[in-house]
Amino acid sequence: ARRAPRRRAGWMGASDSAPIPAASLTAALIADGEAVGTADVAAAAVSGARGGVRFMRVSDLCVSALASEDGARARGGGERELADVIGAEARGGVMCVHAYPLRGRRRRYCPLRVVFGSAADAEHWAAEVNARLPTTRPRSVLVLVNPASGSGGALRTYRRAVAPLLARAGVRARLVETTHAGHAFEVARAFGVERGPGGEEGGEEDVVCVVSGDGLLHEVINGLAARPDHCARAREAVPLAVVPGGSGNAVAMSLLDGAGVGCTPTNAAFALARGHTVPADLMLVSQGRRQQAAAAAAAMSQRPPLRAVLSSTWGLISDVDIESETLRWMGGVRLTLYGLWRILRLRTYSGRVYFLPKEGEEVGKGQGAVACGRPSGAQGAGTAHAATSSELSDMEAGFSGGNADGAWRVVEGPLLFVWVKNTQWDAEDVKPAPRARLADGCVDLLYMRAPVSRWRLLRLFLQLESGSHVGKPGVHYVKCRRVVLEAGAPSTRLGGHVNVDGELLTAASDETRASQGYGWDYGEDAPVDIGVEPKAATLVAPERFRG
Question: May I have one GO cellular component term (predicted)?
Fold first, then answer.
């Protein structure tokens, strides 16, 4: 028997591998199939490409086409684990199983192609493969791409890594390139949860995917929350997928590293095609005043709270993130270089941080925190593990002072930074919160008080990649249910940025606040209140995700 002729590149993939005949099924394989269970295995004789009899085997674990007696073999072997498969299709009597096996921490395209004697056989076995894939697979995806994200390569990432994979999986993709700040917010706000009957063409997509950094996901989450029919289901009902395409990629890193795989576009797109989802907490960020006059209260009511999935920072960390925007062309290395510069030109900050520790969380005397009055906007927060609906309403009203509740703690300045985290990672090489979990009903608070030597700060930055900074002298780490920040003045004329998901919320400088921020006030009399909305979002994650 001769080998099947080499085919040109096309729907089957690369041209450097030829389809193989379906191979004979040995007695040992039949016995193995019986051991797995006949209900889980499809194994039968099919007509070969040149007469005779061939066999195929498809189980809930793998797709097999063993070597035939003449020695013909598939490129990369004749078996693919079903956990690595995103779909199968048949054309002209040839079946192609689209698989992305894991090699180390990266998935690479390695298809399995089998030649049949008839188109009907090929279609039958392609259907056998597809019937065993997860039922959570999306049928259509809305893809939002920021062409300017990171170093400007997000659109190229989509075209090279994401679009081909989705096409092989049979997933329809509608691409929207964002053209201005807030564009993704507008698209998400108009996104309809209800689909047409049967999910026909013209109905809304099953998943919203962003190919960018973390800022675009922040816009989408807040756009969904701003829908006219505002309710928790508007966010929970729409799974959100993230493909790394920016300079930070913290959310993508947290999801992929939690499954033990690398933060690559192909790994993220593979998870999207498989459709596995996990619940995730959101941070609810609002603002109030200590002395609220009627006019001030009316103004605050017109400013809706923000939702955040990543973090909120103030001080050194936020200054590095915001002020290094002029170096965005450098990619992720901008944060490292500017961080070193800011350590050399160190600022300190007055102000204070109130926080409500998680039940059972120990707060040692060495952390510089003392018991204090409970912020009056936090009524009921001392008894619930995560924010209740009534507590969330209180948070939207804003923090406005304190009363007696010994569960709350306060830290007075001078401070170097305050870092409130919802995910483990803050960039692909920065892991500030190794104890964070996506749906634990808490935020992770890190802070550092002055004075601290520059050498100790430099060591802290070097330890952030591995998370080994936790427990080191001067680094305070507390799991909290609520954090209230009263941001004071920086020690220099510049700085004092409050950052939410990489976006500037407010700043000490009137000029910066007016031109770049969300228009929120800055100062100790305008506290920033950070709470938790438990399991308020649904994120696409690898099936092996733990965390």
Answer: cytoplasm
